[in-house]
Design goal:
- β15 (about 280-290) and β16 form a beta hairpin.
- The protein is globular and about 60 Å long.
- α1 packs antiparallel against α6, α2 packs antiparallel against α6 and α4 crosses α5 (about 240-245).
- The chain has a single domain (about 60-335), classed as 4-Layer Sandwich (Purple Acid Phosphatase, chain A, domain 2), CATH 3.60.21.10.
- It has 6 helices and 16 strands.
- With about 350 residues, it is α/β, with parallel strands linked by helices.
Length: about 350
Amino acid sequence: MPTPCPRTSLSALCVALLAGTACRPPEPLAAPPAAGLQGVELVEGRLVERLAPQDNAQLVILYGAEERGDPFPCGCEGGAKGGLARQAAYAAATRGAENSPPVLHVNAGGWSLDAPGFDGAPRADAPLTNQWMTAGLKAAGVQVLNLGYGDIMGMRSLAGEAGLPVVSANISGPGVLPHHIVVVGGLRVGVTGITAEGSPAVPTPGYTRADPYRAGKAALLRLRPEVDRVVLLSQGATEHARRLADDGLVDVVIDANTHHGTYQPLQVGRAIWVRAVFQTERIGELRVGWGAEGSLAWALDRKVQLDDKLPDEPEVGRLMRAAKHELSAASAALFGPR
């Protein structure tokens, strides 16, 4: 087992590295050229010493999506990946790294358990599951959640109280904001989101759905003058997000749509466009530099493998162990022992 490192000036949380290695300063990566997209870099969880490349990034955006109410590592082929305790470890180490740029941590949607019962209401275990899920997201440092289409039922199970800012430009209802402004490192960053409108034949009591493009554009026109940068979170609404990016109202698009691959970042309009990995098996780390009048100068998208080489953040790890115990007991009471 790796031995946790003592606190240092590098990090509020010094994440353990490989077994037997000592804490050491992050190894700088090559500085990017003056302009252009730098592509995508896959980073193994054990390589957390490669934090904080000396690239003069003006903003780092950590992002995930589509955990679907599961805060634990998944039973994936090749070993369990993901989990909020590992997200928290990487986020804390990134924020605490020496000379770290401002960090914004968001979730692009699909974070809740939306399982309905036979009566169409949230399943009996959904409220407890989503309470633990949102508590874990908050403890992991996530600052804004997008309301995906499936999260509407998740919000109903929480009675509209997620404990975190939940945004949507095209879904309105209890607990949902049209946008949220986060001040990071002196930058005013406006965050809004869109999601698929869904079938009109499927009711969403208490929540009103609108066309993602039209509602998104109206929200962005109101938000743009208030902030320095705009981040659009999109869950299952890729084509609508593309149209909004083409309109030049967005600086960053984070697209969640059950993506499993490692895709190159794109430039659409003035925006840098990246894709969140399904179930956050790899956390996204977008590092961006802007030029004159807010034009995109360069961007590097890193995908960090949340595997067992990355130790849990201790406090969130304890929270997740308590969650697993309580959720297992609730599941056994509802469905019988497994």
